[in-house]
Task: structure prediction
Amino acid sequence: MNPRIVDRVASILGPDVLCWRTEFFPKYAGDEGTDWHQAATFANASKRPQIAWPAEDGEPAFGGTITVWTAFTDSTLENGCLQLMPGTHHHMNYDESKPMDYRPETLNSTVKEGVKRGFFGYDYRQLQKDPDWKPDESQAFPLVMKRGEAVIFWSTLMHASLPHTGSVRDYRMGFAARYVPTKVRVYPDTGGVAEYGGEIDLSKYGAVLVSGVDDYGFNRIATENQRGYSFRTR
Ligand SMILES: O=C(O)CCC(=O)C(=O)O
Ligand SMILES: [Fe+2]
Result:
């Protein structure tokens, strides 16, 4: 909800904005990098679309969300900084409805194009539309960041991270907050999310209205009041 972030997000998405999901992304010494990936529906691991844009002219062609990735530690070439491929958000190389197996035993053990990478127990290559296609690593831009810096990118942008090849005293922590306009349906017709080896019951889930008003009532909103968070259905 930090206005330094939300004001910028609202300048892109319009005034009425939900934060629908947040995640910590740690990398410890020896950890693999994150696979190259793009996410439009976020059905990739859970197999159920997690966000659905209305079918209207002028919507982003592939859906997606704004991700704001904040460096909680310095993020370096050695400790697993993010990598982006500028301009790639207009074309999906992956089909998130394809099957992708959860195989945690493969963690930290797979080298792809010379780089140790994985997708938190999955192999994102399984979602490639063309199994023979390879990400063009020459387009990769490493995002070296100081702690406290944040980057804003569309989730359909090709993004990944480098493996942590640094010292055990140095770890990398990123915090991703994901935003959509209030007209997007979040976890549509979904009671729970099973992904990354865990399961989350959504019965008490609410998105956070970080800016503006919710004129649609599509989503349950978690609203702060004096007694903490309560849930309100509109
Ligand atoms: O921090 C990482 O390694 C991956 C982050 C990511 O994929 C995301 O924020 O969408
Ligand atoms: Fe991602």
Remarks:
- Residues 3-232 form a domain with the Jelly Rolls fold (CATH 2.60.120.620).
- The chain has one domain: 3-232.
